[in-house]
Predict the structure.
Amino acid sequence: MNEPGKDEPTGRQAKQLFDDSVERLDAATLSRLNQGRNQALAELQRSSGAVSWGRWLPATGVAAAALVTVLIMRGPEGVEAIEAAVTASDFEMLLEADSLEMFEDLEFFTLLDAVDAETNGNVG
Amino acid sequence: MSACAGVFAVSCSREQSTGAVTLQRERQLNQFLAEVERRALRIAEIAVRDRDEALDLVQDAMIKLARNYAERPCDEWTPLFYRILQNGVRDWHRRQKVRNRVMVWFGRGASGEEDFDIAANTPDPAGRSPDQELQTHEAMQRLEVSIHELPGRQREAFMLRTFEGLGVAGTAVAMGCSEGSVKTHYSRAVHTLRDKLGDHWQ
């Protein structure tokens, strides 16, 4: 019963005509079938992309939980210490236009820093 | 934080292996669809008697298979694909019934079948004479009309078993019924077709 066309004349003849009509499909129809197949494959890529993003969720969750744990363990003192360290002058420095220039000449300022350190070391 | 790094590393290695598996699956699916699409189109076309509608139904079935069943083993794809396609064909017939009822109510009958052109004036790739080609074309038209006139379930059973070559079990999955029902529908379909086409084919 697996290949009914072989056992039964009506089925066999029907199968022959059917296969013939499949072979005679025109180019425009074949092209549309091809387009449909490509859309289906694009859908597969989309859905597998969504799955791979979903796989990152546990890692993101662990990282977030670790961050929350660290903040809780440090407590309000830690937050105060950070707040105390950030003063108004720091913001002024950040907002100055010169600070951007400083980043452009970063190597020069690093060198300057090293010379200062060396000088202080010699003095000390 | 080392736990985070561990999870990240595992995720990265998983990502790489998942990418390779996805690529392989994509190739398999492409091969499967390329192999099945032409027959599926003709099966849908015989059922709905309209090539454009059949193309839409096949495309929908392809997309649904890729979206929902790509992870399933490849040998399950054929019956699943035809199940989706047959559901689409059934929905299409339901919509047509409603549409025809509305059209009749507004005084416009259903569109005639004379618009249906199966050969679409394509040249014969087998190089047969016009007479032979006409004979084959007419025989196929008679067959299509006879299959189309079968009750829906018999039509499905006959086309899946004969044209797609599905076994009884595969046809049962595709039709969403028992194997016993498949055998009954198929047997009745063959008897009806033999009675109708016997004069032309014997």
User: Anything to note?
Assistant: The longest helix of chain A spans residues 27-85. Residues 90-124 of chain A form one domain. Residues 117 and 123 of chain A are 10 Å apart (CA to CA).
